[in-house]
Automatic annotation (TrEMBL):
Transmembrane segments: none
Domain ABC transporter per the UniProt entry, residue ranges: 2-223
Keyword line: ATP-binding, Nucleotide-binding, Transport
Lineage start: Bacteria, Pseudomonadati, Planctomycetota, Planctomycetia, Planctomycetales
UniProt-listed PANTHER family: ATP-BINDING COMPONENT OF ABC TRANSPORTER-RELATED (PTHR24220:SF611), IMPORT ATP-BINDING PROTEIN (PTHR24220)
Example of a GO cellular component annotation carried by this entry: plasma membrane
Stated name of the protein: ABC transporter ATP-binding protein YxdL
CDD domains to which the protein is assigned, alphabetical: ABC_MJ0796_LolCDE_FtsE
Gene3D superfamilies tied to this protein: P-loop containing nucleotide triphosphate hydrolases
An annotated Gene Ontology molecular function: ATP binding
The keyword Transport is annotated on this UniProt entry: yes
SUPFAM superfamilies noted in UniProt: P-loop containing nucleoside triphosphate hydrolases
C-alpha cells in the first residue's frame, strides 16, 4: 500500500508545487497516471521511489514511512522494493542485453547475483521475446526491444512496486500496447503494484484506475 497525506513538494527556485491532500494506491493495484506536461507525473514517481523527499506530509510505502529513513535506508528501500522503468530507458550502449538486464546486480552490493537470478533473467527475456538478442549490444536493437530490456531489468529483483515513466513514449501504437500489456501481465503475475505514467489515452482501458495529477499541481509566483 502507498499512502500519501498532506504531502507537499517543490523544487528550489521553481514555481512548481505538488500538493496532495490524500492519495492511496493499494497493494497489487494497477494504475495509470495522467496529466499535462509539467504537472508533476515524474515528480510523483520520484517521491514514491524515495529519489525525492517531500517537504511536508506523510508518504508511507510498503509499510515504511519514507520520512524516517536516512540516505542509505532510502537507497535500500529503493533497491529492495521498487522497480523503475525510465522514459529514456537508461541502458548502457556498450553492454549487451544480458548485461543490461543484470546491471542492478553489478552496481548494488546488496543484490546477490546467483544462478537463480541468472535463470530468472533468461526467463524474463524469453517472456519479453528478446532472448534471441541476449548477446547483442544495446545500440544494435530496436527502440521497442530496448524498452523490453529496461522492463526486464526493473522486474528482475521482483519489486513490490513497479514504476514506469511514459515507457511507451517513443513507440508505434502496436509496440505501445505490447509494452503496456507486458507490464500489466508481469505485475499481475508477481502481485506487484504497477504505476504507469502515460500521455496516451488509448492505453488507459486495461488499468484499474487512472489518477489525474493535474488537480494536485499548482504554480506559485517566485521572486
Ligand atoms: N530538478 C528540477 N528542478 C527544478 N524544477 C524541476 C526539476 N524537475 C522538474 N522540474 C519542474 O517541475 C515540474 C514538474 O515536472 P515533472 O517532470 O514532474 O512533470 P511531468 O508531468 O512528468 O512532465 P512531462 O509530462 O513533460 O514529462 C515542471 O514544471 C518541471 O519544469
Amino acid at each position: 500500500m502507498i499512502q500519501m497525506q498532506q504531502l507537499k513538494f517543490s523544487y528550489p527556485q521553481s514555481p512548481f508545487r505538488l500538493s496532495i491532500p490524500e492519495l492511496e494506491v493499494k497493494d497489487a493495484e494497477k494504475v495509470a497516471v495522467v496529466g499535462p506536461s509539467g504537472c508533476g507525473k515524474t515528480t510523483l514517481l520520484n517521491l514514491i521511489s524515495g529519489i525525492l523527499i517531500p517537504e511536508q506530509g506523510t508518504l508511507i510505502s510498503c509499510g515504511i514511512d519514507l520520512k524516517t529513513l536516512n540516505d542509505s535506508q532510502r537507497r535500500a528501500y529503493r533497491i529492495s522494493k521498487v522497480g523503475f522503468v525510465f522514459q529514456e530507458f537508461e541502458l548502457i550502449d556498450y553492454l549487451n542485453v544480458y548485461e543490461n538486464i543484470l546491471l542492478p546486480y553489478f552496481i548494488n552490493s546488496t543484490l546477490q547475483l546467483d544462478e537463480g537470478v541468472q535463470q530468472r533473467a533468461r526467463e524474463l527475456a524469453t517472456s519479453m521475446q528478446i532472448d534471441s538478442y541476449f548477446n547483442s549490444r544495446i545500440d544494435r536493437i530496436s527502440q521497442g526491444e530496448r524498452q523490453r530490456v529496461a522492463i526486464c531489468r526493473a522486474l528482475l529483483p521482483q519489486p513490490q512496486i513497479l514504476l514506469a515513466d511514459e515507457p511507451t513514449g517513443n513507440l508505434d501504437p502496436t509496440n505501445k500496447r505490447l509494452i503496456r500489456d507486458l507490464l500489466l501481465e508481469h505485475a499481475t503475475k508477481t502481485n506487484a503494484t504497477l504505476i504507469m505514467v502515460t500521455h496516451d489515452d488509448r492505453l488507459l482501458d486495461q488499468f484499474e484506475r487512472t489518477i489525474d495529477i493535474e488537480r494536485f499541481h499548482e504554480m506559485v509566483e517566485t521572486a
